[in-house]
Amino acid sequence: MIVFRRRLLYWIIREYLRKWSKTIVASFAVGLVIFFILLVLLRYFTPKIPLGNNESIGVVGAYTIESLPLFILGDISKGLTTVSDDGKPGPSIAKEWKIEQNGKKYTFFLSDDIIFSDGTKFSSEDVVYNFSDADVKRPNRKTIVYNLKDTYSPFLISVSRPIFKKGLVGIGPYSVKDVKVNGSFVQTIILALQKNSYQTRTYQFYPSHDALKTAYILGEVSWAIGLLDPSYKKTSLENFPNTTVKKKINYQQLVTLFYNTQDSVLSDKRLRSALSYALPNVFSEGARAHSPIAPGSFAYAENFSFDQDVEQAKILLSASETATKSAHLSLEIKTLNKYKHTAEIIAKAWEMIDIKTKIVTVDKIPDKFQIFLGNFFLPQDPDQYTLWHSAQVNNITRYNNQRIDKLLEDGRKTVDINERKKIYSDFQKYLLADSPASFLFFPYEYEIMRK
Predict the structure, then answer these.
(1) Cβ of 322: how many Cβ atoms within 10 Å?
(2) CATH of the structural domain 78-158, one choice from 3.90.76.10, 3.10.28.10, 3.90.226.10, 1.10.10.10
(3) At what angle do helices 269-277 and 310-319 cross, to 10 degrees?
(4) What is the pTM of this model?
(5) How confident is the model over 361-403, as pLDDT tens digits?
(6) Which residues contact 272 (CB under 8 A, 6 or more apart)?
(7) How large is the angle between the packed helices 402-411 and 417-434, nearest 10 degrees?
């Protein structure tokens, strides 16, 4: 019985193969051909398939739509010009320009085929900068002319600010996909890459550095930027799994001791110079600075510095009339809370020249102070007219020097870049000699990201 069943099964299979063998072989051959065709097509099209690469970036600060950081605006759009690392202007939306009438007339010629992210063509009518002292003319779609009331050499830097249509529509590599606000402040802004809308970049804003670090730990962001230190609850974030930490120098910000030059004690520049000479050569919070102009700028002068020299500080102090009036000189530093540690280091340095220092923390620039420890943001152009010119309200040191005033006035009225370099070299030389401020360091910043 078992033998019969085996023979029956054999006959059935044999007959099936005899009847369908050609079909089976043909189907196998066709399937094999299709497999290889699909394999070739897959290798060809896979690199062309848009893949999602979503970056989530955490930033500290409170910003409105109108006050978003420049590095975010730069993702979305461009200006008429761009600014190189050394502070020199270059072409962007404007492919070239012409300067006439001793720097009072600027004619910009726009690049061809510039397209907004919404698909509309860019024209001179879309260039809108709110300059109060400039008359604007648009002779055609590709030309825009600015007639200034007075020569202003940083003008080419001013028109580097990104240009937008209503709704943050720009011409940069990214377009705005979504914006979430809380009241008037932006919580999240999502950008999509123009060439691949599946690739997004999300910026999320946090009220403090601790809040941003916590967000990174919880996985809310994969990249935290602008942190003052890489620690979290006495542990370095470098020790967290799959985390890398990059240390950078922020050359756009300068931590500075501002002296009230009208103070009865600090009015003597020999005392201010003595205080500068007594300062340490190294600050753990940043890269040591000796000038109000960043080292990468075309206008930076390398041959001026205040290296620590305690003996020279003592000599200057003994020559100071205001210092010798008192047997024990005492000074007061008002400092932002984040620089309190720096103030303590400065106080110890000044102890070496027998100066006692009282430290008071404040949350903003005080109306009245003897010495203020804070920071200021360096403009892309070396022009610092508003900070040091005697007629300016932002001159918080109340510094008054006619030579410096003239150099600052000439610096913003001179178009030739080599001449400007000479002017700002003199500006640094004479400003440092007067010491209305001691320039301490460019702060370190940390980027933390997942591998």
Answers:
(1) 15
(2) 3.90.76.10
(3) 160
(4) 0.83
(5) 999 999 999 999 999 999 999 999 999 999 999 999 999 999 9
(6) 259, 261, 266, 434, 435, 436, 438
(7) 160
